């Protein structure tokens, strides 16, 4: 497979200015006539041939300025390239007629059929699977589309922009013509055709334009669209208020589809969504589902400016739109819910998904230097670390300074395709600051460590903080240059109040000393408040100091962080004890701190819940020299059980006092927080493995009406050793809630695939045979296979059975959907973090994958890079 490099970027020899498409959908075969109005780039050689991207299309004819070319005038010089060999004038129209088969498209890239509807996914390189094109983001054109289809099976025909005409054609067929006034790259093109229901609303922009909003789904799901609509209107308003950004078309359409490789897609004026990211109603969606829908709706909407109006010059710049848009959706969700809670959730995801990636052979800078399959680079690094990098601009420049930078970015680049350097320059120029060194966040992979050493002079009332930074090697980057790191710091006195105003220190050297004057007593340092940079922190502290911070820090994030550090220490110490065959212990200081948190009355319930939640296994694993899955799981269980033994009464009281009446259903912050803390308490109580609590949990699993409570209780029972209760809860969930609803079925699959029971592997094997399972549906694959790959104990079974099972599944899926199989291969990428025996077992599986003939380049790239 061919590797592409960032340094090799060149402008294309031709620009395409207009694309005129005729898409004739017939059951079993679709014909696409694509007319490109193109011109040679100034400076390009006259002899330059036109090389169009074209994949899995059957070329019927090619016309140049209306005249059919003979087959000797064009050819496929290499796979997926259609080259026009004959001479071309400076400006011309090139027309191709191709045949495609959406019904057979299991890759879900290009035009495909999902259930009964036709839809497209063009990012990153799917447009070439519809019609030959210069399928690259710097080629921006205006699109006109005519869709023709059967009227009965496809009454709804949608594309980007505005509907300009529609009508009947006889013989049961009809058409619709759409025109998008904004030039766009091909990856933002979309078409949908199907029998869909919808809800409608309007939004009046701040300049008084009325925008028609419509959200489509299968008819049966129309009652689950209201939350998405509310979220869309909230997003539109928020972007006007926070960034002065107004929507620019008269229509905004969203369509929910069952089969989708990712969460959603921001096609201009026609977003396509995975049903999992748009459907929600109280009886089917958990609180996290509601949050996800709100966040993803916002994310795709925000792309209209950060991604669509200003797009990426090439795919190496992906974080330009994704990091920025994730940052924007995070800020929005924080404003809609709670800033502190949202920050904790985002950092938990970063630590569980991105930190391990940054410490693996798949580590890459947020702006990668090379790729084989671009689809493999839609990663936690590009998205989530990318968002942290954007957040650091805001921390360094302040909210106002950041806004100035954004305004200049749009002023300079609206309507064009640009680079991450252009964004950085806009931020620097708008604020008159030097952000040269900040580029290293884009060029270097790996998670830096910031080490702090503190000293205090009572005489001089002076506090000194020496900060040093380092970052271990990454693939192709043995050494690193110092980063520009904003470190938000507070100094706390004995009374729990800040002694001096909080500061943002700019750490730019390998080591730097920062002095605080007028500090009246020896402070406790609160470092990296709000997680002001994506780094690990090293600062020696006693358990007591952490407990003090947990109780007193005015920064909610660092209160939570101190608790996480306490838990981490204890779990890692117990891992060691388990490995050495010694007794495990839970320090009293942790029990006391947890008790204080449990007894707090006027605390945000979500913060209380997160403060009592143990760090994820992946986050803990990242802190171990060698990950020992059995010891890690045992240590976590021990900590939970010991805590529950000591605080049984407090957990019971908190469980009861946070019960909510079943009617009316509420998903405001208080109700969400109550369900959260209640279910954390249930989790602890279930660790005691007593009949009383199994009964409590079973009652919740059988009687709750809120999906959050049902899932929490049933998941706990799915991992219970009480076979009868486990069976009853799972059967009840299936019969009463999941049957007939694909999204709830996925929850049912996941709770079993994640369960820590001796039959885990045979259970997931059986789930694949379940009549409701389908290997072709990405959500279902993720819910069984992806979830099992996250089952720390059973996926990592010492005999390698979990690894072999995953490889077999990857090979099954790879034939249908390489994007999906490649994602699953990445579960193996962190293999060097495990013991020698497991390393050897995983290595053998990666080698088995690579040796398989016909393996997709997507899966090949992840497998081969993981082995490096
Ligand atoms: N921009 C969208 C990316 C996306 C995608 C990428 C590769 C393959 C399938 C895909 N579906 C959507 C999603 C987003 O970040 O908004
Ligand atoms: Zn995005």
From TrEMBL:
Residues covered by the Peptidase M1 alanyl aminopeptidase Ig-like fold domain: 446-538
Pfam families: DUF3458, DUF3458_C, Peptidase_M1, Peptidase_M1_N
GO BP terms: proteolysis
Top-level taxon of the source organism: Eukaryota
Classification via InterPro entries: Aminopeptidase_N-like_N, Aminopeptidase_N-like_N_sf, PepN_Ig-like_sf, Peptidase_M1, Peptidase_M1_dom, Peptidase_M1_pepN, Peptidase_M1_pepN_C, Peptidase_M1_pepN_C_sf
UniProtKB keywords: Aminopeptidase, Hydrolase, Metal-binding, Metalloprotease, Protease, Zinc
Cofactor(s) the protein requires to work: Zn(2+)
Keyword Transcription annotated: no
Family per record: Belongs to the peptidase M1 family.
PANTHER family noted in UniProt: PUROMYCIN-SENSITIVE AMINOPEPTIDASE
Descriptive protein name: Aminopeptidase N
Organism, scientific name: Guillardia theta (strain CCMP2712) (Cryptophyte)
């Amino acid at each position: 497979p061919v590797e592409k490099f960032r340094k090799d970027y060149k402008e294309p020899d031709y620009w395409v200015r207009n694309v005129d498409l005729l898409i004739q959908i017939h059951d079993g075969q679709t014909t696409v006539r694509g007319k490109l109005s193109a011109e040679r780039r100034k400076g390009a050689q006259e002899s330059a041939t036109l090389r169009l991207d074209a994949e899995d299309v059957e070329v019927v004819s090619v016309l140049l300025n209306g005249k059919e070319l003979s087959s000797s005038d064009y050819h496929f010089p290499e796979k997926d390239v259609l080259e026009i060999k004959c001479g071309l004038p400076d400006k011309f129209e090139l027309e191709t007629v191709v045949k495609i088969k959406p019904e057979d498209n299991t890759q879900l890239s290009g035009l495909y059929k999902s259930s009964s509807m036709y839809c497209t996914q063009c990012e990153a390189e799917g447009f070439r699977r519809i019609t030959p094109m210069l399928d690259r983001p710097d080629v921006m054109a205006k699109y006109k589309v005519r869709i023709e289809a059967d009227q009965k099976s496809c009454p709804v025909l949608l594309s980007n922009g505005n509907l300009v005409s529609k009508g009947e054609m006889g013989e049961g067929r009809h058409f619709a013509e759409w025109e998008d006034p904004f030039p766009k790259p091909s990856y933002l093109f979309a078409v949908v055709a199907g029998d869909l229901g919808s809800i409608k609303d309007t939004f009046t922009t701040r300049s008084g334009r009325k925008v028609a909003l419509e959200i489509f789904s299968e008819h049966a799901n129309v009652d689950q669209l209201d939350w998405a609509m509310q979220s869309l209107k909230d997003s539109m308003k928020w972007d006007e208020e926070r960034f002065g950004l107004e929507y620019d078309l008269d229509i905004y359409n969203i369509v929910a589809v069952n089969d989708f490789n990712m969460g959603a897609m921001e096609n201009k004026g026609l977003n396509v969504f995975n049903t999992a990211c748009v459907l929600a109603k109280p009886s089917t969606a958990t609180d996290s589902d509601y949050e996800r829908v709100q966040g993803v709706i916002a994310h795709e909407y925000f792309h209209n400016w950060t991604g669509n109006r200003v797009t990426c010059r090439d795919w190496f710049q992906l974080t330009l739109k994704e990091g920025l848009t994730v940052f924007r959706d995070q800020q929005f969700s924080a404003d809609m819910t709670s800033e502190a809670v949202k920050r904790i959730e985002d950092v938990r995801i970063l630590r569980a998904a991105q930190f391990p990636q940054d410490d693996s052979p798949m580590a890459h800078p947020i702006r990668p230097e090379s790729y084989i399959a671009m689809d493999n680079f839609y990663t936690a690094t590009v998205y989530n670390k990318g968002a942290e990098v954007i957040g650091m601009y805001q921390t360094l420049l302040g909210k106002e300074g950041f806004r100035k930078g954004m305004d200049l970015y749009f002023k300079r680049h609206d309507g064009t395709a640009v680079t991450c350097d252009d964004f950085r320059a806009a931020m620097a120029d708008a604020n008159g600051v030097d952000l040269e060194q900040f580029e290293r966040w884009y060029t270097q992979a790996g998670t830096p460590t910031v080490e702090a050493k503190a000293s205090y002079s009572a005489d001089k009332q002076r506090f000194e903080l020496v900060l040093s930074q380092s970052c271990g090697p990454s693939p192709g980057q043995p050494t690193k240059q110092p980063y520009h790191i904003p470190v938000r710091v507070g100094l706390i006195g004995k009374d729990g109040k800040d002694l001096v105003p909080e500061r943002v220190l700019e750490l730019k050297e390998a080591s730097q000393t920062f002095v605080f004057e007028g500090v009246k007593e020896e402070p406790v340092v609160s470092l990296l408040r709000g997680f002001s940079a994506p780094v690990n922190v090293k600062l020696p502290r006693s358990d007591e100091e952490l407990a003090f911070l947990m109780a007193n820090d005015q920064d909610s994030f660092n209160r939570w962080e101190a608790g996480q550090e306490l838990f981490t220490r204890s779990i890692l110490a117990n891992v060691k004890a388990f490995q050495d065959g010694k007794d495990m212990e839970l320090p009293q200081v942790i029990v006391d701190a947890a008790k204080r948190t449990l007894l707090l009355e006027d605390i945000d319930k979500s913060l209380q819940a997160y403060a009592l939640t143990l760090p994820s296994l992946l986050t803990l694993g990242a802190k171990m020299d060698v990950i020992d899955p059995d010891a890690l799981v045992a240590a976590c269980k021990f900590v939970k059980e010991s805590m529950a033994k000591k605080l049984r009464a407090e957990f019971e009281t908190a469980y009861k006092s946070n019960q909510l009446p079943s009617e009316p259903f509420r998903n405001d912050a208080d109700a969400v927080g109550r369900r959260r803390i209640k279910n954390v308490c249930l989790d602890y109580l279930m660790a005691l493995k007593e009949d009383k609590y199994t009964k409590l949990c079973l009652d919740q699993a059988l009687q709750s009406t809120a999906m959050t409570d049902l899932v929490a209780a049933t998941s706990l029972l799915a991992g219970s050793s009480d076979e009868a209760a486990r069976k009853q809860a799972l059967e009840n969930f299936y019969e009463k809630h999941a049957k007939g609803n694909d999204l709830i079925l996925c929850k049912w699959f996941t709770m079993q695939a994640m369960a820590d029971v001796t039959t885990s592997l045979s259970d997931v094997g059986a789930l694949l045979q379940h009549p409701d399972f389908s290997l072709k549906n990405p959500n279902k694959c993720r819910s069984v296979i992806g979830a099992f790959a996250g089952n720390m104990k059973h996926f990592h079974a010492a005999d390698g059975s979990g690894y072999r099972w995953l490889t077999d599944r990857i090979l099954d899926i790879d034939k249908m959907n390489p994007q999906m199989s490649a994602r699953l291969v990445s579960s193996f990428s962190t293999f060097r973090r495990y013991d020698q025996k497991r390393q050897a077992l995983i290595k053998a599986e990666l080698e088995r994958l690579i040796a398989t003939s016909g393996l997709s380049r997507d899966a090949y790239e992840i497998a081969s890079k993981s082995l490096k």
